[in-house]
Amino acid sequence: MLCYNEAIDDEIIEILEQAGIKGYTKWTKVQGKGNTSEPHLLSHIWPKANNALFTVLSDEIAGELLENIAKLKTRVAKVGLKAFLLPVEQAT
Question: Can you tell me whether residue 19 is helix, strand or coil?
Answer without folding.
Answer: coil
